[in-house]
Amino acid sequence: MKTNIWQPPRLRAGAHTGEEERHATWFELFYDLIFVVVVAQLADFLKHHLSISGFIQYIFLFIPVWWSWVGATFYATRFDTDDLGHRVLTIVQMFAVMALAVSVSNGFDKSSVAFALSYVAVRTVLMVQYARAMYYVREAGALIKGYTMGFSIAAAMWFVSVFVPSPYRFILWGMAIIVDYATPLILGKVQVEFPPHLMHLPERFGLFIIIVLGESLSGVVRGIYNLSWNPASLATAGMGLSIVISLWLMYFENPDSTDMWDTLQEQLFHTYNLWIYSHLPLAIFITASAVGVELIISSSANLNIPDNVRWIFCGSVICCLITLWIVRFASTTIVSKGKRDHDILRLATAGAILILAITGKHLSHLATIAIVAVMSAVVVAADLYKQK
């Protein structure tokens, strides 16, 4: 694609734009690469903090990282013209995301100030992009003003937090996250008037899921790196890969979630938000399951699975299944214009894995991961059967 030196922002979505088909640009794919690094750092953080408090911290750090990506994605889906001005600002934002990646491993310790300032820098670039869009796309002024006000308040709270001692610093983070996430919800009717591009958006969210699934594949590779090559270790690794494949199929081999959404209907606005926001826990728990798979495989030479490893593995897969059910419910409701999908196999499988986590203390590594792999494969088989 030839890049224009200067092409001001313009509306890229909505029925009145006439732009029916749109896909991710090469530059958007390049931008996503920096988040591959951040997700890997988050996974490494969780691997070294296998406790309830460590898991809560992992989630707390993941939220602003994901929101950074969402902010760039929603700006691009509405206003991006892939000109030099947009590319320069986005590259500056990539440096800020890189700083997030560097500081995330100690985000609740000595790097908490750097993490907060990095996030402020990410959001400041986004505000500059919206200011640029405001100048050229005046008809979307109400939407841009609403975003700018809410996101600026949240960014200011993050900035103030660097001058506040712990633990009050992290309380401010939590309050800022609430403001950030509530802003689009408050602007409901305005967003319906100026919706995101309804073909571009599902593709972009799918690409982020690919990023976290890539971390799962990396976890399998890291898990077998130092193992002896024997049938048991290879089978354990194979079961881990099977789980990753099953999660991929559950998300992407669902025709309802890949069909183009033809319009953003006001009566389904909350369902759209459910679909969007459910991708946050999905990304969190797919990444956590990658850590669980890696730990299961790498420790398979031991007789028993440590309790924290069993729970991080089984618990993450359980939460993946529940979230995938929510994503499927929302997407089928949107595509069928209100018809509900009451498929409960994912929920039933999540319940079965919970029983395994509670009662499987003395099961071997191979038995534990094989049971989860088979259960996941059954869900996939049932999905494929329904598509006949």
Q: Report the end-to-end length measured between terminal Cα atoms.
A: 38 Å
Structural class: mainly alpha
The level 1 CATH classification of the largest domain is: Mainly Alpha
Q: Average the pLDDT over all residues and give the rounded result.
A: 87
The whole-angstrom Rg is 21 Å
Query: How many strands, what sense, and barrel or not for the largest sheet?
Result: none
- For the record, the count of structural domains works out to 2
Q: The CATH topology of the largest domain is what? A: I/LWEQ domain
Tally of individual helices: 15
Amount of helix? over 70%
**What gross morphology would you assign?**
globular
Order of helices and strands: HHHHHHHHHHHHHHH
Q: How much strand? A: under 5%
Give start-end ranges of low-pLDDT stretches: none
The CATH architecture of the largest domain can be named as: Up-down Bundle
Number of strands: 0
List the main descriptive attributes of the protein structure presented here.
single chain; 388 residues; mainly alpha; I/LWEQ domain; 15 helices; globular
SSE topology sketch:
Layout: H1 26-47, H2 52-79, H3 84-103, H4 112-136, H5 141-161, H6 168-186, H7 188-193, H8 200-225, H9 231-252, H10 255-258, H11 269-277, H12 279-298, H13 307-335, H14 345-359, H15 365-386
If you had to describe this structure to a student in words, what would you say it looks like?
The protein folds into 2 domains: 16-193, no CATH class; 200-386, I/LWEQ domain, CATH 1.20.1410. Helices cover 74% and strands 0% of the residues. It has 15 helices and no strands. Helix 3 runs antiparallel to helix 4 and helix 5 runs antiparallel to helix 6 (168-186). The longest helix is centred in the C-terminal third of the chain and has 29 residues, at 307-335. The protein is globular. The two termini are 38 Å apart.
